[in-house]
Structure formats: structure tokens, C-alpha cells
Amino acid sequence: MKISVIGCGYLGAVHAASMAELGHEVVGVDTDLAKIESLSAGRAPFFEPNLPELLERTLASGRLSFTTDFADVADAQVHFLCVGTPQKRGEYAADLAYVDGAFTSLLEVIAPGALVAGKSTVPVGTAERLAAQLAEVRPDAMLVWNPEFLREGFAVKDTLHPDRLVYGVPDGEAGERATALLDEVYAAILAEGTPRLTMDPATAQLVKVAANSFLATKISFINAMAELCERTDADVTALADAIGLDDRIGRKFLNAGLGFGGGCLPKDIRAFMARAGELGADQTLSFLAEVDAINTRRRVRMVDLAREECGGSLMGRTVAVLGASFKPDSDDIRDSPALNVAEQLRLQGANVRVTDPAALGNAKSSYPNLLYVEDTEEALTGADLVLLLTEWREYRELDPEAVGALVHRRALLDGRNAVDPDRWRAAGWTYRALGRRA
Ligand SMILES: NC(=O)C1=CN([C@@H]2O[C@H](COP(=O)(O)OP(=O)(O)OC[C@H]3O[C@@H](n4cnc5c(N)ncnc54)[C@H](O)[C@@H]3O)[C@@H](O)[C@H]2O)C=CC1
Ligand SMILES: O=C(O)[C@H]1O[C@H](OP(=O)(O)OP(=O)(O)OC[C@H]2O[C@@H](n3ccc(=O)[nH]c3=O)[C@H](O)[C@@H]2O)[C@H](O)[C@@H](O)[C@@H]1O
User: Fold this and answer.
1) CA distance 107 to 284
2) How far apart are the C-alpha atoms of 340 and 266, rounded to whole Å?
3) Same domain assignment for residues 108 and 81
4) Is there a single domain that holds both residue 270 and residue 323?
5) What mean pLDDT do residues 130-147 have?
6) How far apart are CA 264 and CA 286, in angstroms?
């Protein structure tokens, strides 16, 4: 089947290559020429494990291509809408300008009977608004919402082997045709027994933001427990292990530390609150404001801990920051807790050196005043304080003796509860972490 994927960022590039892997003829469209040139040449424009191999394989098969020209997708039967929905500047609401822009371009070329499947995360009501526009131009075309749940760092696996597929389809014959087309697209995934849930478009749009809000709430819940642990000399990792063994709670997403960042959880909970307000339900999601506030407080607490560790002032102290991306196995620095902390340390007078295996290029453009060091050893050499802020495997596996030989002072703040405190303390380190005994 001929498929288009509109918007080739973290979501779209992976989706396009994955759909080609499933055997479809796929054309990825993006307005960013540099991105299209890079993808066409088989170079992933961002760091994502397994994507380079997948791109190479599917480009070589002849089933995958990329373009900036919407005319090239005029004959596609299914169009996946994957453009960004960032937070509006100075507001909580989602900026739908990219969705509207891409949709307008699509309306100029869309073929009779084609299906538009929205994958971007949007405020509930967006699908219905776009469907009404589509009906005016192409009454025989269909629009469904098919939200995406992939995680960066696992994007290829999550796309090809998702926990579930969600189809938000209209009632009636159009809905049945749309469902059949999507089933054809995802046939290989469905054949693995992946649950496929069909529902109305409003519910499908809500499922996505509800899932992200729940995940954000789970993280902030454990981080609230961490705040209490800090006041009572208790240990949040032991607490998480103990409550996590209850099947009803589960241990996943109970890792306390610097909290959540990235291009999705923070902006999605804010956009959800904004949308609830528009719907006259301001009170309903007010707890998400607290989820957001707890999350931000963890960053402030980390900076306070660093200052304490430096005897009350960061002025002139050399601080090595391990990690810049918002999570390991990604070069994404959107709302990165690590960079936020690094910048606060710099503003308080510390000589901050940031290192990261993949994200330094992106970090430099957003935080140009920080000092970046490619080499981990160089970042650590002579440091008065080490902050582990993104738990890349190479940082989790650092040898405390070897690192101890490089630094000026053996002091580690573990912002992700990522290493074994006993091992580091045994090597003579002062080890401190959020939510754990000093
Ligand atoms: N990044 C992720 O892990 C996931 C993202 N999402 C959602 O997917 C959507 C996209 O997110 P990302 O891929 O992270 O964003 P991104 O910013 O990496 O990619 C968006 C792409 O859309 C392109 N674009 C903008 N306007 C366009 C237009 N008119 N025509 C064609 N292309 C256009 C941009 O140039 C960019 O390459 C968002 O709604 C996000 O919330 C959902 C699940 C996972
Ligand atoms: O809508 C999206 O874009 C995606 O958002 C998240 O995926 P992602 O942002 O890639 O990363 P997560 O693994 O969810 O981590 C988000 C943040 O939470 C933090 N986190 C995660 C787990 C945890 O226990 N503690 C914690 O602080 C991570 O360090 C990271 O900063 C969701 O997990 C995906 O299901 C969703 O599709």
C-alpha cells in the first residue's frame, strides 16, 4: 500500500521507516529540507537506537523515500500526520500551527477515498475540526485518530511491537472502511496478537494525553515521596521497590530523581490542563499543576544540594555534569532537566562542564553559554563536584576508583539514583541523591 508520513521528526521518521519495514511503499514528507536530505541519504537526523540500520535497509529496498513536495504523496491511500504540537510560547496550550499547515497542504493533493490518520498528540476536538475541513474538500475521504505511544530510545521497537494500537474512528460505513485500511497497514503487527482498540475519535485523542498524564503523575508521586524521604532520613528507592511489588502499582515509572523532561510529558500535561479549561473543566485537572510543580522543584533541589556540597557557594567551583539529554539513549534536549540544572549552576557562578554521548550538538544551540566537553574523562578531571543527571549506561557503569583518580574532590550527586551508593562510598566518595539519606 502507498503511505505518506507527514512530518519526519522523532515520531515521523521512525514511523515512515517502520511502515516500509512492514512492506509498504512509504514517502516521508517534511518542510525541513535539511532533514529530508539527511533522511534520503540514510542519515538519521537524530540519535535513536536501531534507526540507522532500519533506514539503510528500507531505503535500499526501494520502498522508502523522502520529499518536501506534497505532490509526491497525492496518490497515497493512507496519510499519517506526524507533525509537532509544541507548547505555545508563554501559554500552556498546544500550538496547532504545524498541524493546520500540514493539513492545508495535504488537502490540496489528497486523493478520493484516501485516509488521514492523525498520530500527533492533539487537544481533544482537533480530529473533529480537521474531519469537518476534510469533508468540505473530499467528502469521500476519511479521518481517524491513531495516537502513538512510542518512547524515545525504544522508538523502533515500540513502533513495530507496540503494547496496543488505538483507532479513533467515526461511526458508520466510513469508520468501517477506515478500520479495514488501518488493519491492512498494521497487518503484520496485528498478526503478533497486538491488542487493537477501536473507539470514537474523541476518546482516542484523550487516551493519548491521559496516558502521558498518568505517567507524569506516577513520576511526580514518587518524587513527592522523595521530598518526604529527604525530611525523614528515609530511602525513596527502597520505598519504590516495596510499593512497586504490588501488582496494582507496579515498579515501572517509580524512579525518583530529577523528574521528567522531554518534548512530550511536560507540554502534554500543560496542554491537557489548557484544554480542560476551554471545556469549562478548570478544576478537573488542577492536580496536574501540582504534578508539574513537584517536577520543577526537583531541579531546584538538585541545585540546592550542589551548593550545599560546595560549602554554601558555587562560585568558582568546577562541576562536571554527566548527561545533557532528557533521558538516556536519546539526543533530545527538549525541556531537559539535566541542562536546566547545569544552566542554574552556571548562573550561580560554577564552572560547569557538560558531557553527553549524543546530545552535545543540540545542547550547544539551546544553551550556548555552557561549556561542553566530548570526553568524559576530560569533563571529570579536576572537578570539585560530579553530577550524574542523565543515566546513560556509560555513566551508570563508571568505576568509582578510576573516576576518583581524575577528580579534585570525590563528591557525587546522583540525580537519577543510577549508581550503587555503597560502592561509591566504599571508594571514598561523598554520595548524595534525591530522596536518599545523606
Ligand atoms: N517524540 C516522541 O517520542 C513522540 C511524539 N509524539 C507526538 O508526535 C508529534 C511529533 O513529535 P516529534 O516527532 O517529537 O516532533 P519533531 O519536532 O521532532 O518533528 C516534527 C516534524 O514536523 C515537521 N513539520 C512541521 N510542519 C510541517 C508541515 N507543514 N509539513 C510537513 N512537515 C512539517 C517539522 O519540520 C519536524 O521535522 C507531537 O505531537 C508529539 O507530541 C507522540 C509519541 C511519541
Ligand atoms: O508522547 C510521547 O512523546 C511519549 O512520551 C513518553 O516517552 P518519552 O518522553 O520518550 O520518555 P519516557 O521514557 O516516558 O521518559 C520521560 C521522562 O521521565 C523521566 N522518568 C521516567 C521514568 C521514571 O521512573 N522516572 C523519570 O524521571 C525520564 O528521565 C524522562 O525525562 C511516554 O513514555 C511515551 O509513551 C509517549 O509516547
Assistant:
1) 36
2) 14
3) yes
4) yes
5) 97
6) 19
What's the first-to-final CA gap in the chain, in angstroms? 59
Angle between helices 286-309 and 337-347 (to 10 degrees): 50
| Domain count across the chain | 2
Catalytic residue among 82, 229, 264, 310: 264
pLDDT tens figures, 101-113:
999 999 999 999 9
Query: Does the active-site annotation cover 229?
Result: no
Whether 438 has a pLDDT exceeding 90, the answer reads no
ipTM higher than 0.95?
A: yes
User: Considering only CA atoms, which residue is closest to atom 14 of ligand 2?
Assistant: 151
**Is 183 among the domain residues?**
yes
Residue 206 lies in a domain: no
Q: What is the C-alpha R_g of the chain? A: 23
CATH number of the domain that residue 330 is part of: 3.40.50.720
The answer, yes or no, to whether any atom of ligand 2 lies below 6 A from the CB of 257, is yes
Q: How far is the CA of 263 from the centre of ligand 2 (A)?
A: 9
Comparing CA positions, the residue from 25, 1, 33, 30 lying closest to residue 13 is: 30
pLDDT at residue 437 greater than cutoff 90: no
The residues facing 432 across adjacent strands are: 413
Query: pLDDT band for position 208 (50/70/90)?
Result: very high
pLDDT tens digits, 28-62: 999 999 999 999 999 999 999 999 999 999 999 99
Q: Identify the nearest ligand to the CA of 69 by its number.
A: 1
Instruction: Classify residue 185: in a domain, yes or no.
Output: yes
Give the chain's length: 438
- 421 Cβ neighbours under 8 A, 6+ residues apart: 414, 431, 433, 436
194 among annotated binding-site residues? no
